[in-house]
Amino acid sequence: MRHFTPDNIDVLAVSAISAAAYLDACDQGDQTTQLDPRCYQACGKVLREIFSMLDPAIHFPVLIEQSAAAREVAESLRIGKLISISRLAYYPELSILLNRASV
Questions:
Q1: Using CA atoms, how far apart are residues 101 and 65, in angstroms rounded to an integer?
Q2: Which domain of life is it from (predicted)?
Q3: Global pTM exceeds 0.70
């Protein structure tokens, strides 16, 4: 488990807010925002990585409330964890095969 200082969390919050704002602007077709596919993808990765390290519901509740992109990333990570847990618990043979195939 990683331990973050309040300053670390503040820096990550600024990055998460910026990434979510760009994604939301592009998704809403904002005419003042130019869509760059590489930037769009990078912003999604930034949100995913930050939300993987810190629980967004605890550390970024306002961002989750205000940003559709942030909500979607948080929800997809939550669903991914549930699928992973279910796969290990209910389909151990499948888990073994998938792990072998991924190597």
A1: 38
A2: Bacteria
A3: yes
